[in-house]
UniProtKB/TrEMBL annotation:
<feature type="transmembrane region" description="Helical">
    <location>
        <begin position="184"/>
        <end position="204"/>
    </location>
</feature>
<feature type="transmembrane region" description="Helical">
    <location>
        <begin position="211"/>
        <end position="229"/>
    </location>
</feature>
<feature type="transmembrane region" description="Helical">
    <location>
        <begin position="12"/>
        <end position="32"/>
    </location>
</feature>
<keyword id="KW-0812">Transmembrane</keyword>
<keyword id="KW-0472">Membrane</keyword>
<protein>
    <recommendedName>
        <fullName>ABC transporter permease protein</fullName>
    </recommendedName>
</protein>
<feature type="transmembrane region" description="Helical">
    <location>
        <begin position="127"/>
        <end position="152"/>
    </location>
</feature>
<feature type="transmembrane region" description="Helical">
    <location>
        <begin position="272"/>
        <end position="292"/>
    </location>
</feature>
<keyword id="KW-1133">Transmembrane helix</keyword>
<feature type="transmembrane region" description="Helical">
    <location>
        <begin position="88"/>
        <end position="106"/>
    </location>
</feature>
Length: 300
C-alpha cells in the first residue's frame, strides 16, 4: 500500500512541473555564477595584467606581477580545473540549495491544504503515511538535485578548462589543491543539507497549514539561529554551524569562486562530531514531521 502511495505522491510532485523549473533555474544560476563567471573573471584579470605589462614595457621598465595578484589569479584558474568541477558545483549547491529546499518542502505539504485535498488523502491512506511519502520524496529530490549538479560539474570542468587553456597563459602553470574529500562524501554532505532545510520547510508548513509560512520559516531559520544564539563555544551542536563545519571539511574554496568557505564556525571535538550532530538534526526533523502528522487532526 505504501508503495502505491509513494508512486501517487511522485505523480503529484512531477505534475506541477515546479520541481523541474526550480531545479534548472538553480542549475543555470550556479553554472553561470560559478564556472562561467570564474572563467570571465580570470580572463579579465589576465587582460589587465597584459595591459600593465605593455605599459611597463613601453616605459622600458621591468614588470613584476605582485604575489597577491598572482595568487588570486592562480586560485581562480585552479577552480576551472576538471579535478575541481564536481567540487565547485556541489559547493555552490550546498550554499544555494538551503535557500530553495524549504520552498520545495513547504510546497509538498502546503499544497494539500491549499487545494483542500488533505482530508481526502488522510481518509484514504492515513495522514501520517501521506507525510512519510512526502518526506521520502523530499529525500529523493535532494539526492536527484545533488546528482544533477555533480553531473553538471563533471561536464563543465573539462569545458571551462579547455577554454582556459586557450585564453589564459597561466593555465599550464597552475596546480589545483587536492580535494578534501571524495565526491561521494561531498554528495552525501550536500544531500543531508538539502534534506534538512527542506524538512524545516515541510514541518513549518505542516504546523501552520500554509506553504508560504513554511517556506518563510525554513528560509529564516539560519538567520534567526544566528541572531538569537550567535556563535557560542558549544555552537558546533547547532545545525547551522554543524552544517558549516561539514562544508569546510569536505569542499575546496578558492579566491574568485561563486561561494566562499563558511564563516563564524566552532571547531567540534572531532571530525566525526559534525556528522553525528547534523545527522541527529536531520533525524529529529524527520521524527518531528512524522510525530506531528500522527497527532494532527485532519479529518475533524
Amino acid at each position: 500500500m505504501f508503495r502505491q502511495l509513494l508512486l501517487a505522491e511522485g505523480r503529484l510532485v512531477w505534475k506541477g512541473r515546479w520541481v523541474l523549473i526550480l531545479a534548472f533555474v538553480l542549475l543555470a544560476v550556479a553554472v553561470w555564477g560559478g564556472p562561467v563567471r570564474t572563467y570571465q573573471y580570470a580572463v579579465s584579470r589576465v587582460q589587465y595584467v597584459e595591459e600593465l605589462r605593455s605599459i611597463y614595457q613601453s616605459a622600458f621598465t621591468e614588470f613584476v606581477l605582485d604575489d597577491a595578484a598572482a595568487a588570486d589569479l592562480g586560485e581562480a584558474v585552479a577552480l576551472l580545473r576538471p579535478e575541481l568541477g564536481v567540487n565547485y558545483l556541489l559547493a555552490i549547491l550546498a550554499v544555494l540549495g538551503p535557500m530553495v529546499l524549504p520552498v520545495w518542502g513547504a510546497q509538498l505539504v502546503g499544497s494539500e491544504f491549499k487545494n483542500r485535498t488533505a482530508k481526502v488523502r488522510a481518509a484514504h491512506s492515513g495522514w501520517m503515511a501521506v507525510v512519510a511519502a512526502k518526506v521520502l520524496w523530499l529525500l529523493l529530490l535532494s539526492a536527484g538535485l545533488a546528482l544533477l549538479f555533480a553531473l553538471a560539474g563533471a561536464v563543465s570542468g573539462p569545458l571551462t578548462w579547455r577554454a582556459a587553456q586557450e585564453t589564459i597563459w597561466l593555465a599550464g602553470e597552475v596546480t589545483p589543491p587536492p580535494l578534501k574529500a571524495p565526491p561521494a562524501l561531498q554528495l552525501l554532505v550536500t544531500v543531508l543539507g538539502l534534506l534538512f532545510y527542506g524538512l524545516v520547510g515541510l514541518l513549518a508548513a505542516l504546523l501552520t497549514r500554509s506553504a508560504l509560512a513554511g517556506a518563510l520559516a525554513g528560509l529564516a531559520l539560519p538567520y534567526l539561529e544566528w541572531m538569537a544564539l550567535g556563535t557560542p563555544g558549544w555552537g558546533w551542536l547547532l545545525p547551522r554551524i554543524a552544517y558549516g563545519n561539514l562544508l569546510a571539511d569536505h569542499f575546496v574554496y578558492l579566491s574568485g569562486g561563486f561561494v566562499a568557505e563558511p564563516l563564524a564556525l566552532v571547531e567540534p571535538p572531532s571530525p566525526l562530531a559534525s556528522w553525528a550532530v547534523f545527522g541527529a538534526w536531520v533525524a529529529l526533523a524527520v521524527g518531528l514531521a512524522l510525530a506531528v502528522s500522527r497527532r494532527q487532526q485532519i479529518l475533524s
